[in-house]
């Protein structure tokens, strides 16, 4: 039946039969303290008895007192100690010598459903399930009896000495006590006690048996029952099973092992137990315990072969991306309807405070976090002065204290993850913008609060301890007064509804300017120019002078910024370009003013001169998008063959602000032929579009 190149050919087929005549009577005896070469088959068995319910067996076998290995004096001494000299009590050893040995059984296993005795006869295998497996070990109850005899003799001697001085008819006072009703708890303790179990076992009577040797005729007769009596397959249906059912019968699940597993603390989960959970629960549990983790470390803790795409989907539900690392969400650490263990503050307040700390870490794009700055904001805006320990917990979860630096983010920026997953980074960035907007409304903040302040470079100086304490007190007092004045000014500004003008107090900001040539440009010597912020006097540079013409309105540095930005994002609205430019300015070192004074008109002209075109997206009349959000620009030519795909896509969105995927794929096939693949369409949508409700929008045009 097997092929010539089979590594495991079938040699022989054997019929298997199940014998059931001795199912409830067959026991396997083991003698673990006796060598297999020295069996008890030829030894005279004197007594045999059994307790069937407990599966407890006792045997008494004769000892060869005439053997040269037998110590006669020791045998006589043991018999004397056990039976004593009195002839009234029944003796254990009738020959006044230890001439027999007792064996008592213990169960080797409580579950014998996987064990059977097998007999192979004439090409047939007959199996009989075992009722029990018993290990027969020597019993030393005779030593207990000798010890009892010795104690009785000593007690009798002491009682005889004391009774000579006491009268036998002394009157003794008797106290009668009535037992209380037994409670259920006391009853359970009594039932589980060792004394009660011993008593229950002693209540089962012994069943005396007759022993027959291996070569006895009765043994040979009983041995025939090990063969299956009904050889007809129709009657022997136990073995007519599928392979899976047969294996399940041979190796059933070990239910008792689940009960005997040690129970660990409720807040401790082993890696083996963790990997039995669904993937989402694994990621959530790890992030709740670690708080901050790079994605590569998370993949290392999960089982090998786990799909990274599935892990990315799961982690975005329980964590946020900060500097390329994942930080657990506040609502995961502080679930709804819970409160702080330190201050009793509700979870909603804790989440707001922690969100501010995490948001600060994200938008500053630096490692330094000033503790006093964060604490004052949380203290003033949340008005919970007793949250000091909670704020410390926020910081310790994601940062470490540094001398003269405050607190620094716990991990270095993971640039590799951001480079490999730009779509995830972009999605997380949009989420952070929403969180920032929510904090602005709740705390009456502005975007300036998340822009890093100018860091003064710390220089090592050697001063005395008293001078350090005095200086620290003065700095703290001055910082607190400055912060209070800034907060009062912001509140006064918000109360006067000054935020609608579109101007911001951020030190680096693209100035608003009319786009039409007929309108006069805004004053370039105002206090918000980039030159004045970076340490230079306010002045109008020749490159930014509107009277010099638009040909010189933008610098090569600005062109480089625009080109690199659009080669990375492909599609941007004007407001998003301005935001990215402000972040770029904020990251420049102090005193860097190569850009000069940049206006909206200059920024748009630079975009159009950098192989980009404005996409005239037909927004609906009821759209709430601002004017800068409706000015959408796309990279038209980058020097690669994929430019044709983007150009076709942009032409589609010039007719409708949202389309379906099949429309895009059909149009690409019509314009570029059948060479357009699904991979090309996926890449195009990933680079330039976002999906919402089954429709596709250009990036930056998705309705809020």
Automatic annotation (TrEMBL):
InterPro entries reported in the protein's UniProt record: RNA_pol_III_Rpc5 (IPR006886), RPC5_C (IPR045576)
Domain DNA-directed RNA polymerase III subunit RPC5 C-terminal as annotated: residue spans: 452-703
Cellular compartments per GO CC: RNA polymerase III complex
Coiled-coil intervals, chain numbering: none
Name of the protein in its database record: Polymerase (RNA) III (DNA directed) polypeptide E
Naturally occurring in which organism (per UniProt): Cyprinus carpio
Basic and acidic residues biased stretches: 465-477
Region (Disordered): 148-185, 460-552
A biological process from GO: tRNA transcription by RNA polymerase III
A Pfam match: RPC5_C
Regions of compositional bias (Polar residues) in chain numbering: 526-543
């Amino acid at each position: 039946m097997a092929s010539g190149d089979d590594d495991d050919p079938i040699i022989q087929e054997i019929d298997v039969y199940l014998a059931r005549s001795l199912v409830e009577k067959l026991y396997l005896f083991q003698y673990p303290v006796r060598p297999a070469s020295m069996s008890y088959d030829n030894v005279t068995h004197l007594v045999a008895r059994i307790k069937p319910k407990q599966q407890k067996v006792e045997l008494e076998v004769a000892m060869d007192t005439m053997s040269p290995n037998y110590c006669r004096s020791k045998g006589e001494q043991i018999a004397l100690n056990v039976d004593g000299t009195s002839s009234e009590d029944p003796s254990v050893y009738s020959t006044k010598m230890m001439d027999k040995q007792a064996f008592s059984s213990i169960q080797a296993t409580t579950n014998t459903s996987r064990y059977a005795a097998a007999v192979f006869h004439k090409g047939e295998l007959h199996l009989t399930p075992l009722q029990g497996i018993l290990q027969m070990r020597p019993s030393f109850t005779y030593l207990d009896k000798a010890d009892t005899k010795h104690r009785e003799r000593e007690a009798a001697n002491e009682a005889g000495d004391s009774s000579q001085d006491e009268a036998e008819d002394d009157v003794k006072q008797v106290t009668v006590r009535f037992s209380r009703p037994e409670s259920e708890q006391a009853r359970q303790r009594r039932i589980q006690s060792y004394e009660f179990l011993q008593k229950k076992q002693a209540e089962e009577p012994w069943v005396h048996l007759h022993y027959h040797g291996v070569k006895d005729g009765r043994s040979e007769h009983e041995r025939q029952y090990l063969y299956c009596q009904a050889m007809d397959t129709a009657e022997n249906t136990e073995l007519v099973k599928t392979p899976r059912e047969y294996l399940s019968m041979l190796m059933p699940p070990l239910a008792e092992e689940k009960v005997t597993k040690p129970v660990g603390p409720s807040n401790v989960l082993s890696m083996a137990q963790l990997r039995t959970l669904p993937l989402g629960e694994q990621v959530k549990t790890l992030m709740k315990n670690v708080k901050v983790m790079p994605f590569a470390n998370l993949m290392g803790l999960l089982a090998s072969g786990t799909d990274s795409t599935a892990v990315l989907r799961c982690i975005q539900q329980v964590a946020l991306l900060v500097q390329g690392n994942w930080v657990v969400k506040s609502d995961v650490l502080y679930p709804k309807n819970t409160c702080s263990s330190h201050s009793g503050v509700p979870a909603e307040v804790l989440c707001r405070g922690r969100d501010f700390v995490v948001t600060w870490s994200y938008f500053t794009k630096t490692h330094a976090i000033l503790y006093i700055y964060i604490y004052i904001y949380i203290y003033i805006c949340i008005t919970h002065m007793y949250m000091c320990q909670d704020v410390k917990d926020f910081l310790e979860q994601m940062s470490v204290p540094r001398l003269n630096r405050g607190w620094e983010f716990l991990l270095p920026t993971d640039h590799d993850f951001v480079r490999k997953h730009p779509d995830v980074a972009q999605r997380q960035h949009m989420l952070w913008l929403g969180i920032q907007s929510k904090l602005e409304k709740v705390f009456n903040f502005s975007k300036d609060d998340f822009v890093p302040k100018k860091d003064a470079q710390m220089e090592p100086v050697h001063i005395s301890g008293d001078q350090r304490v005095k200086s620290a007190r003065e700095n703290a007092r001055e910082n607190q007064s400055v912060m209070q004045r800034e907060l009062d000014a912001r509140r006064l500004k918000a109360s006067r509804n000054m935020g609608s003008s579109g101007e911001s107090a951020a030190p680096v900001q693209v100035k608003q300017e009319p786009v039409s040539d007929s309108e006069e440009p805004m004053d370039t010597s105002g206090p918000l120019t980039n030159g004045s912020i970076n340490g230079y006097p306010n002045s109008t540079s020749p490159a930014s002078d509107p009277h010099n013409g638009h040909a010189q309105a933008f610098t090569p540095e600005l062109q480089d910024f625009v080109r690199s930005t659009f080669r990375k994002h492909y599609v941007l609205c004007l407001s998003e370009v301005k935001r990215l430019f402000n972040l770029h300015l904020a990251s420049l070192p102090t005193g860097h003013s190569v850009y000069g004074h940049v206006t909206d008109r200059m920024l748009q002209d630079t975009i159009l001169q950098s192989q980009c075109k404005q996409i005239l997206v037909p927004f609906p009349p009821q759209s709430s998008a601002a004017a800068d959000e409706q000015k959408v620009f796309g990279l038209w030519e980058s020097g690669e063959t994929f430019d044709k795909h983007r150009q076709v896509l942009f032409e589609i969105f010039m007719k409708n602000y949202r389309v379906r995927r099949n429309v895009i794929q059909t149009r690409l096939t019509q314009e570029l032929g059948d060479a357009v693949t699904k991979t090309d369409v996926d890449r195009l949508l990933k680079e330039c579009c976002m999906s919402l409700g089954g429709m596709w929008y250009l990036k930056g045009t998705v309705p809020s």
